[in-house]
Amino acid sequence: MTTQLLDQTKAEAFAGHLLQMLNSGAMALMTSIGHRTGLFDVMATLPPATSQQIADMAQLNERYVREWLGAMVTGNFVNYDMTSDCYWLPAEHAAFLTRSASPDNIAAFAQYIALLGTVEDQIIDCFRHGGGVPYSAYKRFHQVMAEDSGQTIVAALEEFVLPLVPGLIDALTQGIDVLDVGCGSGRALNKMANLYPNSRFTGYDISEEAIATARDEAAQLGLTNIQFQIQNAETLTEIKQYDFITTFDAIHDQARPDIVLQGIYRALRFDGVYLMQDIRASSYVDNNLNHPAGPLLYTISCMHCMTVSLASGGMGLGAMWGEEMALNMLEDAGFRHVEIRRLDHDFQNNYYIVCK
């Protein structure tokens, strides 16, 4: 057996890549902490300040804030002046790290890294024995997902997403029946119900926690044209009951997405429209080589989307099921007219405009 000679230049470059990966992973965790504690939001409002001043303003422990700032400085997120012992967050960085920067706040997405890390042991067990990790194992998932969709889908709903469907705004204004399948915490549906009081809205989700959150928000908004129900998406029984059905980042998580799509087809009126938002990707890995978030999305898929489906004995499509499979499954469900639309500011999602 011959020994393969190493290309030392390539080996050293890859070693450097690995070190960069470790530093980036560490920064993802620190970014999540900066977001959850509000440190980025506080620093965006402050002139150069000491660690104590920043901690006092954020109402946090100074020692932890100082160590966090060490990571932020060495990671080139935060600037530091040794003479004054002061730190500051450049405005150009704050534009992608603060809540006021929505929908461009990437710090919110960093929470997924820490969240997925909590199920690493269970995922490794699945690698060895198969099966999956259930939704119940993911603490804070619905909270993080609601924040994610809040600054992407919900924020763009009125101005960009709903106008993708010709005539939809007028129909919603006049009054139609709307169903959101896999509604999660209900932020998108509650926003639509608030915008269009003449229409009637229903949301289904299997999570009791998410439905409770959705109902609380609806009550706080004083909405009377909306209802939320705890229901498995595979058990839709309605026949031609809705004019407009939506799923936001929900189909690929289902145990049996084929059954869900068939149920949506039956529940949609003949002249109705189904709007399916899902991840923009190909079903084939070689077509995703230049995807700007490919590694992140495959990781989220492996450690959440795919495994929660497999935990229920499902198909385990995963987040990267892709356009090709999506189109085939829509056709198999009975749909004959599908148009894929995209938004200029959103590289991550496809919007499927689907009719019978």
Structure report:
Pfam families: Methyltransf_31, WHD_Rv2258c. Residues 25-99 form the S-adenosylmethionine-dependent methyltransferase Rv2258c-like winged HTH domain. This is Methyltransferase domain-containing protein. Residues 173-299 form the Methyltransferase domain. Keywords: Methyltransferase, Transferase. Helix 10 links the parallel strand 3 and strand 4 (200-205). The strands form 2 sheets. The chain has a 7-stranded mixed sheet, sandwiched between helices. Strands 1-2 form a two-stranded antiparallel sheet. The radius of gyration is 23 Å and the shape is globular. The chain is α/β, with parallel strands linked by helices and 356 residues long. It has 2 domains: 8-99, Arc Repressor Mutant, subunit A; 116-355, Vaccinia Virus protein VP39 (Rossmann fold). It starts with 7 loop residues before the first helix and ends with a strand. The chain has helices at 8-37, 39-44, 51-58, 62-74, 91-94, 111-117, 120-129, 141-161, 168-174, 187-195, 208-221, 257-267, 294-311, 322-333, and strands at residues 79-81, 86-88, 177-181, 200-205, 226-230, 242-248, 268-279, 337-341, 349-355. The model has no long low-confidence stretch (mean pLDDT 95). Helix 3 packs across helix 4 (62-74), helix 8 runs parallel beside helix 10 and helix 12 (257-267) packs across helix 14.
